[in-house]
Amino acid sequence: MKSTESIKRSARVRRTWRIILALFICLLQLVPVYITFTVSVKPQTDMSSKWLIPAKPFWQNYMTALEAGNLLRAFLNTLIITVISTGLVVVLGAASAYPLARNPSRLNKGVKTFILSIMMVPALSLLVPLYVMLVHFHAISTYWGIIPVHVVFNLPLAIFMYANFIETIPQELDEAALIDGCSVYSIFGRIILPLMTPVTVSVMILTSVNAWNDYQYSLYFLQKPAMKVLTLSIASFFGQSGADPHVAAAAALLAILPIMIIYLCLQKYFVKGMVEGAIK
After folding, report:
1. d(CA 241, CA 252)
2. Alpha helices, DSSP H only, in 53-191?
3. Angle between helix 106-118 and 143-166 (nearest 10)
4. Mind listing the pLDDT tens digit for each residue in 56-72?
């Protein structure tokens, strides 16, 4: 049998290798951000290596991105679409998942299976019928046209995560509240909903990132310049007449800052919600 000292040494070695692997993965993730930053602080005439930060950073690229790309208006449009879409997904997802999780009938199991199957449908395969429908309802280049699209494609995952999380909450809480005179709506709003904070944060982050970074639907459904979102503003710096990757890099960094800050502030709840909500 191995001695206690040998077991401790093996554990330290494994822990060290895990730390090295984690640091390596972090570096890989940070490389694109670093290169984007170095490119964003160089003038278009600078042909030096993308790995080198210039001695005198060229901050004018950020001002050009704000002005030429109309980034502030794009930021407002993206914020409105993201906040409303995320709010609707959270409310509808939680409300839909509660009866599915608390009433495990054959019908509800079939509904959950159907919801899971919807998640496997490629989103772009529905682009043409969606476009035709939005044109029919005069919803092109409108908030009320693009927001339902984001809600529909993010709702199945939200329902799936919420339902799995609610099934881990003891049903005795519901029964005790019913004895105390609470209605079903009061049980859901006052007892179940507060307990779902971790999975709610996970749903919020996943939905907001998808809506914030959306390009495919925004490109076709938001055609007016006044309705441009951040991804379209960044893409506007690449055209047939030429490209300005330095200004585009500056615009990209400005665009990812808000969502990165939100994630860093809520990452503890995000990890917990993903583990408890995705795996029953």
Report:
1. 21
2. 60-68, 71-102, 106-118, 127-136, 143-166, 172-179, 184-186
3. 130
4. 888 899 999 888 888 99
Chain mean pLDDT for the chain? 86
Cβ contacts of residue 267 below 8 Å, gap of 6+? none
Per-residue pLDDT reduced to its tens digit, 227-248: 999 999 999 888 766 688 889 9
Nearest to 168 by CA among 266, 89, 278: 278
Using the 8-state DSSP alphabet, how is residue 125 labeled?
A: G
User: What are the helix (H) ranges across 103-142?
Assistant: 106-118, 127-136
Using alpha carbons, select from 87, 116, 75 the residue that is nearest to residue 207. Answer: 87
As a whole number of angstroms, the distance between CA 253 and CA 69 comes to 13
Instruction: Measure the CA angle with vertex 174, ends 86 and 91; round to 5°.
Output: 10
DSSP class of 123: G
Task: Identify the residue whose tokens are 């919801």.
Answer: 115
Which amino acid, one-letter code, is at 137?
F
